[in-house]
Amino acid sequence: MLLEINNLSRRFGGLQAVSDASFSVSQGMIKAVIGPNGAGKTTLFNLISGTLPPSSGAIHFKGQPIHGLPPWRIARLGMARTYQNIKLYPGMTALENVMVGRHCRSRAGFISGMLSLPWTKKEENASRAVAMELLALLDIADLAEVEATSLAFGQQRAVEFARALAMEPELLLLDEPAAGLNIYETAEVARLITKINGQGITVLLVEHDMSLVMDISHEIAVLSFGEKIAEGTPAEIQHNKEVIRIYLGEDDA
Fold first, then answer.
1. Beta-carbon contacts of residue 62 (< 8 Å; ≥ 6 apart)
2. Could you tell me the residue ranges of all domains in the chain?
3. Burial 65-88 (b: 16+ CB within 10 A, else e)
4. Which residues contact 150 (CB under 8 A, 6 or more apart)?
5. What is the pLDDT at residue 213?
6. Are residues 105 and 165 in contact, defined by beta-carbon separation less than 8 angstroms?
7. pTM over 0.85
8. What contacts 24+ positions apart, CB below 8 Å, involve 151-157?
9. By Cβ atoms counted within 10 A, which residue in 19, 174, 202, 218 is the most buried?
10. Domain 3-248 falls in which CATH fold?
11. What percent of the chain shows pLDDT beyond 70?
């Protein structure tokens, strides 16, 4: 199992954001986490990626415990993340933004960069080549030299995906990748996520767009008020009475 979450909880004072949640993510799958606003989905992502420490419970990635590790150590183990709000660097091209993602795989530091040592230039050229390959993979190589923040919203999301892939992740966490996108951009993001998964990269996503989730996910976990209330295939989740009640407010007849 690539990722295992066991009895995970996180409290903020008197607020229980995540409560005793357990589920796993198998190598090679696309798994979605869904739930109403305030269900604890983003907090769960923050716990997995190391942004927040858990109050209790355990997280294992590739068989080793990662709960309590800082984000940079988790990233080096092979996990990358994007955020609901796109975070690209203004004044930098799409290519330069993707190259930033190579930092955790780079040996060069501030001093060696200032000295322009021969090996640092070689490493920079290698990072540039990898970044171009990733832009090509996501069908935006023609935008490499365009300032990233001037791109259309959907194209910015693709650049963000490429930057995350530059970290060479085995597991990619996507926090609401379709947020703010129109129907056509959402369809393109769904295509890109499927394409990324086709490269052998496992994907765990939080998403509100149910059409996207049902179309591309292999498994779905459902949270409500921080608790996991259901888990299964898209077909199983669509027919789960508790999930229907939570989303539609319907009572059993």
1. 2, 77, 78, 170
2. 3-248
3. ebbebeeeebbeebbbbbbbebeb
4. none
5. 96
6. no
7. yes
8. 151/94, 152/185, 153/86, 153/180, 153/181, 153/185, 154/181, 154/182, 154/184, 154/185, 154/188, 154/189, 155/94, 156/86, 156/88, 157/82, 157/86, 157/181, 157/185, 157/189
9. 174
10. Rossmann fold (3.40.50)
11. 91
Give the C-alpha distances (Å, rounded to integers) separating 25 from 30, 107, 127, 202, 218.
Answer: 8, 31, 30, 8, 10
